[in-house]
Design a protein that fits this description.
By secondary structure, the protein is an alpha+beta fold. It is built from 3 helices and 6 strands. The longest helix is centred in the last third of the chain and has 21 residues, at 103-123. The radius of gyration is 15 Å and the shape is globular. The protein starts with a helix and ends with a helix.
């Protein structure tokens, strides 16, 4: 009985997420999925995918810096994250590149990427669980996140 209630609640949450999706302008442009800070909220503001990977940036007078991980190629396309750290603490993760060429990619990543962001911030590492149904995206996400953390010296 308890398993059915949990399953029903998860299904309802997934449906709510799917119904709250708004189509974005720009063919081939994937919105940036952001963790929005420690609360795990998401921001799906429109942005274009970046094919380049860069190192850290930011002011050297503060302990806050942003590091972009290497793009991790997956079966369905590259996944790349940009991590903001305050000292050694992960505060925000933006997914700047991910598969979004068709409706199914968009559907999968609309629920998987916010969950991955939330888990990574809670774990403060790339050692997180794979999201069921989004195995390839999860793998690319963790590889890009680990790359960013390595660049940041974590």
């Amino acid at each position: 009985m308890r398993r059915a209630v949990v399953s029903s609640a998860a299904t309802a949450a997934g449906i709510v997420l799917l119904l709250s999706l708004k189509p974005h302008d720009g063919a081939g442009a994937a919105p940036v999925i952001s963790s929005g800070g420690a609360g795990g909220a998401t921001d799906t503001s429109s942005g274009s995918s970046s094919g380049s990977s860069s190192g850290s940036s930011g002011s050297s007078s503060t302990s806050t810096r942003t590091v972009t991980g290497d793009a991790a190629n997956t079966r369905y396309g590259p996944v790349q994250v940009k991590v903001t750290l305050d000292g050694s603490r992960i505060t925000t993760i933006d997914v700047v590149q991910y598969p979004s060429s068709d409706h199914r990619d968009q559907e999968i990543n609309s629920y998987a990427l916010p969950l991955l962001n939330q888990e990574a911030i809670a774990a403060q590492s790339a050692q997180i669980d794979v999201v069921s149904g989004a195995t390839f995206t999860s793998d690319g996400y963790t590889r890009s996140l680990q790359s960013a953390l390595d660049k940041a010296g974590r």
